[in-house]
Amino acid sequence: MASVADPDVPPGETASYNMTHLSNQPKNGALQGTGSDIAFQGKYAYAGNYDGFTVYDLTNKANPKQVVQVYCPGSQNDVSVYKNILVLSTDSSRSDDSCASTSLPATEKSAWEGIKIWDISNPLSPRYVKSIETECGSHTHSLAPSKNGRDLYAYVSSYSPNATFPDCQPPHDFISIVKIPVKHPTQAKLVATPNLFPDGGYEGDPDRSASTTSGCHDITTYAKYDLAAGACMGDGILMDIKNRERPRVISQVRDTENFAFWHSATFNNDATKVVFTDELGGGGLATCTGEFAPELGANGIYDIKKGRHGTTELKFQSYYKIPRINTENENCVAHNGSLIPVKGKDLMVQSWYQGGVSVFDFTDSKRPREVAWFDRGEGVSSGGTWSTYYYNGYAYSNDLGIGFDTYDIDDRIDGKAERVKLTSLNPQMQERF
Fold first, then answer.
1. Full DSSP string of 359-427
2. Residues 193, 195, 201, CA angle at the centre, nearest 5°?
3. Which residues in 356-368 are b (16+ Cβ under 10 Å) and which e?
4. Looking at residue 372, what is its pLDDT?
5. How confident is the model at residue 3, as a pLDDT?
6. Is 58 left (phi over 0), alpha (psi -120 to 50) or beta?
7. How many CA atoms lie within 13 A of 168 on its CB side?
8. How many whole angstroms separate alpha carbon 223 and alpha carbon 310?
9. Quick one: pLDDT at residue 307?
10. In 395-431, which positions are buried (b, 16+ CB within 10 angstroms) versus exposed (e)?
11. What rounded mean pLDDT belongs to the chain?
């Protein structure tokens, strides 16, 4: 009889439930770095890599075709797209803002990091047009168009200040906001650095390996509702972004028992819930061995409630962690995912590094449950899947080590979603389906 210590998937093998792996496009050419985030527009997927980004043609859904590879090193190279604009995050100190840059210590004042803006009016020939340097770089960024559609705002998240870094001084309790004129992206400029934590935020807890709040790790915007949810290492926040240049924190939550690193956030479709992820161990820890409690390295599900005197509050409901057991050599923790557009339900597909891909139903905030999964056993991938997103009938995933994957989820789960046709998808810039 198998014990709780035995892995669900034997080393070197793969297994799945209610989803089918259709294809893998291996890393190749100049882009041999870590695979990172993905954005979608029309028939194309833009997949980040620490060495640049790749454009895939999704015409053949079961077997996407690589059509463009852009070499431009600078981790993480998280990517977002909006109309003819592509934004790329650089969170590593570089010698300059060019795609020929080399590494430079962050202690050097001349070092550069921030965001890079590209013209993708021709997706087959992306053109680098502008850069904006931001303090502590750009670990991630999130887009929010203005109400008139003329301007695009990028909320730049960065963290880990250090007194020896000239361009990343503590306490760094702010985010950077870049305004990009949609028709004239070369006129982009830094317009605000709002302090989200005037009280300094959570001080951290070394005994739990819980991080200090110093800026934000990731922000998800939802322009239709003028809301944004921030995952800020030690704190989770909800913001009012009616004034795009002056976001205002309207609710702040802290989990001093189980959450160690507030990593990312996802709203449900009607913006009545937020799923926050806890990246315990920074993505390198094996938290799915059965030795870590189900509340550790998990999702935290919060309802958005109206409080007294018209206030808005985040109310904790439950944790969700994949129930499958991994080996001690498989890094496994909650990471990036997106909604599956089934009206009347709250369904999400999500990456768990070497824990694989999980689809879970959180329609009942207090009782989330896994409904589908795909998992590679130890030794197949060097790091597992970074991000998995649902786009026009299929789930697409970027693996840290082995490339770009496509999955088909069982029709009993996503049958209605297959009829929803999106023109674009930026998971950190949610749009109602």
1. EEE-SSTTS-EEEEEEEEPTTS-SS-EEEEEEETTEEEEEETTTEEEEEEE-HHHHTTGGG---SEEBT
2. 145
3. bbbbbbbeebeeb
4. 98
5. 43
6. alpha
7. 28
8. 20
9. 80
10. bbbbbbbbbbbbbbbeeebbeebbebeeebbbbbbbe
11. 96
What tokens were used for 163? Answer: 């007194």
Q: How far apart are CA 30 and CA 400, in angstroms?
A: 15
* DSSP conformation class of 211: P
> Which tens digit of pLDDT belongs to each residue from 14-67?
999 999 999 999 999 999 999 999 999 999 999 999 999 999 999 998 899 999
Closest CA to 321 of 284, 342, 291: 291
C-alpha–C-alpha distance, residues 267 and 231, integer Å: 12
Integer-rounded Cα radius of gyration of the chain = 20
Structure tokens, 55: 């454009």
Paired tokens of 415: 């049958």
Structure tokens at 23: 């294809």
pLDDT of res. 5: 54
The three-class DSSP label of residue 128 is strand
What is the model's pLDDT at position 14?
96
Find out whether 228 and 220 touch, Cβ atoms under 8 Å.
Answer: yes
Residues in Cβ contact with 310 at an 8 Å cutoff, skipping those fewer than 6 apart: none
Q: Which residues pair with 409 in a beta bridge?
A: 19
Q: Tell me the pLDDT tens digit for each residue of 158-200.
A: 999 999 999 999 999 999 999 999 999 999 999 999 999 999 9
DSSP letters, 34-92, are -EEEEEEETTEEEEEETTEEEEEE-SSTTS-EEEEEEE---TEEEEEEETTEEEEEE-S
- Using alpha carbons only, give the angle 143, 225, 333 rounded to the nearest 5 degrees: 60
